Amino acid sequence: MASDYREDMKNTLLERELDRMLTITEAAFLLGVSCTSLRRYANEGKIKTYRVGSGRHRRFRKRDVLEYLERSSEF
User: Fold this and answer.
1) Are 19 and 12 in contact (CB under 8 A)?
2) Which of 12, 29, 42, 53 can pair with 49 through a Cys bridge, CB separation 3.0 to 4.6 Å?
3) Where are the domains of the chain?
4) What is the pLDDT of residues 10-27, one digit of tens each?
5) Three-class SS of residue 9?
6) pLDDT score, position 5
7) CA–CA separation, 35 and 55 (whole Å)
8) Distance CA 18, CA 55 (A)
9) Helix 62-72 × helix 24-31 angle, to 10°
10) Which residues contact 47 (CB under 8 A, 6 or more apart)?
11) Contact criterion met (CB below 8 Å) for 27 and 72
């Protein structure tokens, strides 16, 4: 029973971390690319981006960044 609780808590925390929004600098660092390259990928529709705030700043969901990294490493 306690192990079920721990497993549920672990899954909840993992999901929360994967849904965390990253700045363009954080996402570019994870991908090992420049911010300019990441902007280009987003403009080309290669990676999902979200616009936030009045300045319409780009944010990237960590899950999307990791999925892009996985897809791009398949080549």
Assistant:
1) no
2) 42
3) 21-72
4) 988 988 888 999 999 999
5) helix
6) 86
7) 17
8) 25
9) 30
10) 38, 41, 60, 64, 65, 68
11) no
